[in-house]
Amino acid sequence: MSKGNDHGMVRVLVVGDTGVGKTLLLQRLHCYSVRHGGELLPISDPTAGFHVEVIPIHREPRHFLPGDRLDNSGATCAAFIEVGGNRNFGPSGQLPIRLMTVHGVIFIYDCHNIKSASNLKCWYDDLKNCNIVGGRNSPKVMLIETVLSSSKHGASVGPRGIPDEHLGTYLRERARDSVAHKQGLLARSWFRLVRWWSGRELSVSDFKHPRQHRGIRLRSALFLYRCFAVVENFLLYLMAVALFGPSQKSVLLWLPPVEAALATIEGDPSGTRTLNGCPLYGQKVFEETAACEIHAFLSTLDGT
Question: Which residue spans traverse the membrane (predicted)?
Answer without folding.
Answer: 223-245
